[in-house]
Specification:
Elements (H helix, E strand, L loop, with lengths): L1 H16 L15 H20 L11 H14 L1 H33 L1 H14 L8 H8 L3 H25 L3 H9 L4 H36 L7 H10 L3 H29 L4
Helix pairs in contact: 3-11, 4-5, 4-7, 4-9, 4-10, 6-7, 7-9, 8-9, 9-11, 10-11
């Protein structure tokens, strides 16, 4: 009996000394550069193999090498830099205008009842309209120059930004707002110290969606009444059945999308260090 009691008394001490595995890991996004490089390498290898074996006809789907040669010739001629510069200018101006106005309206709708009651039905009514369908109307109003293209891009990113910013403000925990009120913080201090920092992750996530929409609208707008730009270049190459140059333009769009994504990722790391 004494031995059994001694053993039972020693059991808690042994359990106290036993290491317990940490269970709080996971659900944390990490980075893996080799996985992305491997995915792109596998995609290019499959494309090259399909082209070399004749599965993909060269006339309709040139090999990666042919697309690379077309890109190199465009770079040597200076046309590549010209088209990319024009497209970058358009997407930067159009996206900035649309996102700036959308953030102001979305945050106001998230904070004020009157703004939400007046703005939400209008946003829900106009959001589903394809903005590229309005481009001919913008051309009639603003001319065939840059203003109509910027208006198309800006309006296209405006409504997703409004909805995303409003939802981000709504998702801020109300317990934090009540805590600020209990400490006697003025409303403006609660907005700038609690609401906006809490809504920032959702707002930045909306930036990625609006940037993708802006890129799509950019190409569509440049295919109508534009002499320079990636969209105009792709349309001209398609009309001439120059599929290697057409795919070179598509590759440029892919690289541009990756560059925009990298910039937004750097912005998130800078602004969301507190997470």
């Amino acid at each position: 009996m004494l031995r059994m009691s001694d053993k039972s008394a020693a059991t808690p001490a042994v359990a106290a000394r036993t290491a317990i595995a940490f269970r709080g890991g996971g659900f944390v996004p990490g980075r893996s550069a080799w996985a992305a490089a491997a995915a792109f390498a596998a995609l290019l290898a499959a494309w090259h193999l399909a082209s070399a074996t004749g599965v993909l006809p060269a006339l309709f789907m040139p090999s990666p090498g042919a697309v690379g040669i077309a890109l190199w010739r465009l770079a040597e001629s200076g046309a590549l830099a010209q088209h990319v510069a024009v497209s970058l200018q358009r997407i930067a101006l159009g996206w900035s205008l649309g996102v700036g106005a959308g953030l102001a309206c979305g945050i106001a709708m998230g904070l004020f009842t009157l703004a939400r009651a007046a703005g939400l039905p209008v946003a829900m009514a106009l959001f589903p309209i394809p903005k590229i369908a309005l481009l001919p109307l913008f051309i009639l109003w603003l001319g065939i120059g840059e203003a109509s293209k910027l208006a198309t891009i800006g309006l296209g990113v405006f409504f997703p930004t409004v909805v995303g910013a409003m939802a981000a403000v709504d998702n801020v925990p109300r317990s934090l707002v009540r805590m600020g009120q209990s400490f006697g913080l003025p409303p403006w201090r609660i907005v700038f110290s609690i609401v906006l920092p809490g809504a920032l992750p959702g707002i930045l996530a909306g930036f990625r969606i609006s940037a993708a929409i802006a890129l799509i609208l950019l190409v569509s707008a440049e295919m109508i009444g534009a002499q320079f730009g990636i969209g105009a270049f792709i349309l001209a190459a398609g009309n001439l059945m120059q599929t290697d140059q057409l795919l070179a333009g598509v590759a440029l769009l892919s690289v541009l999308g990756l560059a925009i994504g990298a910039l937004l990722t750097a912005l998130e790391r800078t602004l969301l260090r507190w997470r």
